[in-house]
Design goal:
Elements lengths: L8 H7 L1 H13 L8 H18 L8 H20 L4 H21 L5 H7 L3 H11 L7 E2 L5 E2 L11 H19 L3 H12 L4 H8 L3 H21 L6
Antiparallel strand pairs: 1-2
Helix pairs in contact: 2-3, 2-4, 3-4, 4-8, 5-6, 5-7, 8-11, 9-10, 9-11, 10-11
């Protein structure tokens, strides 16, 4: 431990208690109660806090809260992976199966049959069936901060595990917030260019600006979004 850096280790650990509770509640709110209990997440968080305090050094260039937040959230995601009811073997088979489906679609020019998928990826049918049966235990929805819902079917049969789904959701929420924080013109450029698939020249006409100005708005909007995403940490969310 860096004793000269953190003179009072116990006080430093206890000072991070609100962070552990906040992150545990946040992760638990995005996961059905049948998957993991908030107390289990807090337990994992406390162990991570102790490790974070013991290795923290100001030369890291971040405050202890920011550093510990990343360590704690990582530990909670690992706890989700630990209780994931889908085996790694089934998840690997599902990943290979999805790749096989894309390949067959390209080769055949149509949706492949179940038999064709099984022939390309042996075991896919059985793994898919096991994942589908496990959906029953995931009857609660994954809810985002905006109130949208990720149903269990979006989680279990896919290539990502539960923790990866939560991580991706956290990043998506933060990205939406970053875009919403832009001024009207920059937000319009991002929305029309990326979500409506329009060229910048067309966007420039709508905004009644020159193509060069639209390009500038696009560049500065991306810079602002990237800056916010780069600064995003669990402790500051």
């Amino acid at each position: 431990m860096h004793a000269t850096v953190l003179a009072d280790r116990d006080a430093a650990i206890l000072s991070l208690a609100p962070l552990v509770r906040k992150l545990a509640r946040r992760v638990a709110s995005r996961v059905p109660s049948t998957v993991v209990d908030v107390d289990d997440l807090e337990s994992a968080g406390w162990m991570a806090v102790i490790r974070a305090v013991d290795v923290f050094d100001p030369s890291f260039g971040v405050p202890i809260e920011g550093y510990a937040g990343r360590v704690v959230l990582g530990a909670m995601y690992n706890e989700l992976r630990r209780v994931d009811p889908v085996s790694e073997r089934d998840r690997r088979t599902m990943r290979l199966g999805k790749r096989a489906i894309h390949e067959l679609q390209h080769e055949l020019g149509r949706e492949p049959s179940s038999a064709e998928i099984e022939a390309r990826c042996p075991g896919y049918r059985r793994a898919s069936g096991r994942c589908a049966r496990l959906e029953v235990s995931y009857d609660a929805a994954f809810r985002s901060a905006e109130g949208t819902v990720l149903r269990p079917v979006d989680v279990l049969p896919g290539s990502d595990d539960v923790a990866a789904t939560v991580i991706a959701h956290e990043e998506r929420v933060e990205l939406q917030a970053a875009i919403a924080a832009l001024d009207d013109r920059r937000r319009a450029v991002i929305s029309q260019h990326y979500f409506e698939r329009r060229k910048l020249n067309s966007v420039a006409q709508d905004l009644d600006v020159s193509p060069q100005r639209a390009s500038q708005l696009h560049r500065t909007a991306l810079e602002q979004v990237q800056t916010r995403m780069a600064a995003f940490t669990p402790a500051s969310a």
